[in-house]
Design goal:
Elements: H1 3-26, H2 31-44, H3 61-77, H4 89-104
Helix pairs in contact: 1-2, 1-3, 2-3, 2-4
């Protein structure tokens, strides 16, 4: 197995469960959930949903670590777009977008 394949497997093993946890959190109605939601939307479409990385400072350690694992997944595994790891991921992330827009109004 090549070094790239080993890295990809390692990143997937950490990133996929973190992504699942963050998607659950993003559906909640808390300040940390809003940050997670905006982080995921930034990965989904950074032009449409720019994300200020300093916002991650407000997360507890577990959520922060999950965000870093998902960022690493998105940057290093490059297997799929972040929303494509879910069935109906486009719909899920558009729901996140609706929630984000409602909270800004």
């Amino acid at each position: 197995m090549s070094a790239l394949e080993v890295e990809r497997e390692t990143v997937l093993a950490a990133g996929l469960p973190a992504l699942q946890r963050l998607a659950i959190i993003a559906q909640r109605d808390t300040g940390q959930a809003a940050t997670v939601r905006l982080f995921l939307l930034g990965l989904y479409n950074g032009y449409r949903f720019p994300f200020n990385l300093t916002t991650l400072r407000g997360l507890d350690l577990e959520l922060f670590s999950d965000c870093i694992a998902v960022l690493t997944l998105d940057a290093r595994a490059t297997v799929k777009e972040v929303h494509q790891y879910f069935n109906n991921g486009g719909e899920l992330f558009e729901q996140f977008a609706e929630i984000a827009m409602e909270s800004r109004a």
